[in-house]
């Protein structure tokens, strides 16, 4: 299956950890060799890099590891193609403008039947490629369009409720792990995925790691997880699987978490 990873931090960080680790998962012998992408938020805009080839073979990935922009918020994806050609148009994450800012979406899982789902229609938004993931993003944008009507972002409660309802409609179609951001907050929905140990499709679909650093702490540096600066800061990582030996927490099936600037703001678990 595809691999997802997101960063939210109180301070701008360099994203060397995700590119290095996700690239290894898209290397020789791995199934996720059909494309990679990463979106670095810069205020309301994003620097988006994507290629329809294996991340482990990419010179651009190696360049970004040392020269990529620093960011408070980033979303990464490595693709295992199940629908649509191996092409740039089908490479995630996807980004579209709405309300004067860039919105980014990345999904892991298959969604058979989404083309005929009456509760997930794209409205005036149209996919550029052929993936079910991009069609889901278009359906989300159609819902968000009615919410983003002013100059300021809608209330966080309104956005969280909309994302929760969207996830509830998406999940019956198949594994619906996704990362979404409007530049203000990061929303992550954990569902189910193929588990390497058993081969079964079951929870967890995403894992979360939160780290707090005090001014006197040495700068953390973890091979599989994180390389950040010294000083007081908070960082949240969300990934398809734990990327280090730290205490990652599995998201419950259907759990939606909301993060801003390295702080966990909300956790919704369906009853």
Give a brief rundown of this model.
By secondary structure, this protein is of the alpha+beta class. The chain has one domain: Aminohydrolase, N-terminal nucleophile (Ntn) domain (Glutamine Phosphoribosylpyrophosphate, subunit 1, domain 1, 4-Layer Sandwich), CATH 3.60.20.10.
Protein architecture, described:
There is one protein chain. The chain is an alpha+beta fold and 271 residues long. It has a single domain (3-268), classed as Glutamine Phosphoribosylpyrophosphate, subunit 1, domain 1, CATH 3.60.20.10. 18% of the residues lie in helices and 32% in strands. The protein has helices spanning 16-25, 59-67, 132-145, 156-170, and strands at 3-13, 36-42, 45-51, 71-78, 94-98, 101-108, 177-181, 186-189, 193-194, 201-202, 207-213, 233-239, 249-250, 256-260, 263-268. The protein has a 7-stranded antiparallel beta sheet with strand order 3-2-4-1-12-11-13, with helices on one face. A 6-stranded antiparallel beta sheet has the order 5-6-7-8-14-15, covered by helices on one side. Helix 3 (132-145) packs antiparallel against helix 4. The longest helix has 15 residues, at 156-170.
What are the defining features of this structure?
single chain; 271 residues; alpha+beta; Glutamine Phosphoribosylpyrophosphate, subunit 1, domain 1; 7-stranded antiparallel beta sheet; 6-stranded antiparallel beta sheet; 4 helices; 15 strands; globular
């Amino acid at each position: 299956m595809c691999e997802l990873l997101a960063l939210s931090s109180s301070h701008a960080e360099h994203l060397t950890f995700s590119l290095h680790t996700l690239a290894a998962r898209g290397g020789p012998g791995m199934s996720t060799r059909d494309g990679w992408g990463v979106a670095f938020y810069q205020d309301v805009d994003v620097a988006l890099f994507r290629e329809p080839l294996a991340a482990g073979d990419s010179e651009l990935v190696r360049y970004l590891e040392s020269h990529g922009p620093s960011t408070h918020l980033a979303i990464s994806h490595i693709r295992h193609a199940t629908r649509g050609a191996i092409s740039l148009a089908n490479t995630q994450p996807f980004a579209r403008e709405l309300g004067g800012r860039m919105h980014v979406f990345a999904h892991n899982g298959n969604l058979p039947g989404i083309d005929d789902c009456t509760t997930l229609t794209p409205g005036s938004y149209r996919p550029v490629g052929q993936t079910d993931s991009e069609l889901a993003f278009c359906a989300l944008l159609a819902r968000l369009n009615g919410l983003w009507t002013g100059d300021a972002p809608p209330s966080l409660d309104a956005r969280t409720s909309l994302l929760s309802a969207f996830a509830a409609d998406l999940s019956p179609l198949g594994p619906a792990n996704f990362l979404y951001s409007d530049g203000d907050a990061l929303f992550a929905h954990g569902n189910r995925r193929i588990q390497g140990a058993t081969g079964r499709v079951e929870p967890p679909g995403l894992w979360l790691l939160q780290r707090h650093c005090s001014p006197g702490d040495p700068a953390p540096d973890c091979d599989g997880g994180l390389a950040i600066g010294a000083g007081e800061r908070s960082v949240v990582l969300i990934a398809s699987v734990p990327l280090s030996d730290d205490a990652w927490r599995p998201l419950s099936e259907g759990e939606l978490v909301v993060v801003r600037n390295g702080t966990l703001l909300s956790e919704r678990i369906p009853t």
